Protein: Signal peptidase I
Organism: Chitinophaga sancti
Amino acid sequence: MNLAFWKKNNEGQPKKKKSAVREWFDAAIFAIIAATLIRTFIFEAYTIPTPSMEKTLLVNDFLFVSKISYGPRIPMTPLAVPFTHHTLPFTKYSKAYSEAVHWKYRRLPGFSDVKRYDVVVFNFPEGDTVALENQDQSYYQMVRAFGRDAVWEQNHVISRPVDKRENYIKRCMGVAGDTLSIKEGVVFINGQQAPIPSESERRYWVTTTGDALNPSRLDEMDIDPGTDGPYDSAKYRYNLTPSAAATLKSWPVVTNLAPFVNPAPEEVAVFPHDTAHYHWTEHNFGPMYIPKKGVTVKIDATNIAFYDRIISVYEGNKLEIKNGQIAINGKPADSYTFKMNYYWMMGDNRDNSLDSRYWGFVPEDHIVGKAWLIWMSYGKGSIRWSRLFRTIK
């Protein structure tokens, strides 16, 4: 009985060899598929473009970000050009993806949930709408500052799906269910002071006897003397790590060193952007509850500013507010039950970071992965050898 009846009868004929072009093509297709699967489900490379996480992470640090730590997110916009994010290379406006197919948010199992003080990569929550000529700025902040008509007249404005929004990296300071507050620039979680990252920075007032600070010593400590000041012959403002502040305070020429605290809430556009009820600054903020999946909160005119974007944008409801009355999906509402967990992200360079203090909560479906390892770093024209293969804490 011929068990191989389904095979073509070509015994005795020489096997046709693939051409070199065909072999290269097959290898390229395999490499693209393998690399796409790896960067989607295991890890992906990112570059630090801004100083918002200094000195923990520096501009031109190249990172591996683990997708499996929190569980890889299934692509929500699957039709995209490989190895691109939201824009085609060498173009300014051309999308690198198609929204013809859209999948709902799903995530495979991971090793853990997002934890407090993890360094996390996520999609920018206010990145659903983008002014292309000013992509490094929040569209909503621009509208608050200049008005919608002015922004639309001067920019090409587009929308982006969740997984094609700009990638941000910050430290998770609060998880779902926490109550967060900031007092004099220090973060408190559930009434307890949060640990201060050892390489974090914030601005300090430095008062001297009137003698100038030694610029060579400042350079040795990686302090930029021209960043901010001097304000007069005896007063400076520097961005310092905790250890640099302690060292500077010990200098005989320094008479006083104190953290800078912004005293003017009307000059700062901080979340929830409701100056009628909340006079907060980036240094004095809260207390504020971070929404947790399944929890129901009361909503009214005094607190709807915290939750309006969650209800209408992140969780897809129709929210209407008329004469102080709130309606959700056409029905009067005085409470709301959250469908997702939310997180509060802040940069380690606290006074030089646009973070949750300015644009609010990060939904769980925006979480990309956990920052894991620095594989390359360069600055001042050379490789920073001491930073290579350093894990991120």
